[in-house]
Amino acid sequence: MTVERDAVRAQVLIVDDEVDHAQIMADALRRPGHICTVVHGFNAAAEEIQHGCFDVIVTDLVMEHQTSGLEVLRLAKQHQPDAETIMVTAHGDVPTAKAALQGGAYDFIEKPLDLTVFRNLVHRAAETVAQRHAIHRLQDQVDSSFGFEGIIGHSSAMKALIDSIRQVAPSNIPVLIRGESGTGKELVAAALHKHSKRADKRYVTFNAAGQAESLLEDQLFGHMRGAFTGADRDREGVFEYADRGTVFLDEIGDMPLSMQPKLLRVLETGDLVRLGSNETRKIDVRFVSATNRDLKTACAEGKFRDDLFFRLRGVELYIPPLRDHRDDIPALVHHAIGKYCGEMGRARPQITGPALMRLVSYRWPGNVRELLNVVHRMVVTSQAPMLDLADVPEEVQERDSGDHGGGAASLGGIGLDKLEKEAIRQTLSMTNGNREQTAHLLGIGERTLYRKLKEYGLR
Prior knowledge:
It contains 20 helices and 18 strands. Strands 2-1-3-4-5 form a 5-stranded parallel β-sheet, sandwiched between helices. It has a 5-stranded parallel β-sheet with strand order 9-12-15-8-16. Strands 6-7 form a two-stranded antiparallel ribbon. Helix content is 47%, strand content 15%.
């Protein structure tokens, strides 16, 4: 078997202290079009790996030292994480080469080289890298078309939320995220950090719910050795660990009332004191918090401090429940099908119009989290090339009382024509305007699609 003419062209780094052998490998790879950089020792390899950009790294296992090739692999994983590394080894070093596979090497090949086998091995590694890049590019296209940092949605409500995230993220102002369980508060918090000036620092999440107060204080503030039984060494808490980064405090509405003044002090002054210490420590942390509770009501009932609430709510972001932006469901469904099929390595099925409309009409009390779980189950349990109404789980098939008789006629106040138009528009966008693919994904004929494009004024 030989490398095909349309094989992936890769940037290849060849590391071998035997000059002639390195040249033979380079000549074998340049013939099908790969671009090769050749070096003859670990130091030169380190320089290239730290400053170059490669798709495949081919390294001799044993050079100046027995572990030289493993050191090349370690550097490659650190500085060229998207590259694949192939180990070249003598017969007696095969156990070490197998160990390198555990360290992340793509594969190994024994000397003397069969150049055809060698070329095909490099080609497969290059294809793996190219496919990984293609997946990343596709994900970027999906995000740019349908949302932002995994927050999928084209509705006016979700567009407004994404615009607010972009606007607020670069500042240091505390952000309070409100929304029902399953709406995606964690995604919003992560997006705020990723687009902040602290993106290269730590992002630490902490759930304030369901923890004993003593344990909660220790986890947040840390302790000194001897502060309590079993405290055999000093330990920094979440706030110190996240210094100069972002802390996401989830379920902040469940924070015990007695802990709230201590949190307020950190927010106002940046000062904290570890358990068992009198020393004040300074931290610089951006606070993002989230809750599915009504904190205004909690304040009125004396269960949450007004001053802490106002401090946490520097900016408030609200994520609507999925039932209030159902026109985003088609994009969410298509995104989820692609995601889970990719994870399983299976061909992507289409979804029929009736199945998609059933998903749109359901009330989704668990919001986006529940929708993703349902689509995941449909992808796992169906091997057919088309997801149909029979593949929709029983609990979603049953019309829930939340529709109040509106059922299939209005889908909770949204007309079928609007939902159909949105489904067509988003599918067209996903297929880059390919009408044949759009009709196939929607489960309708091309003539029907053409008629509906004219009817809805879509291009």
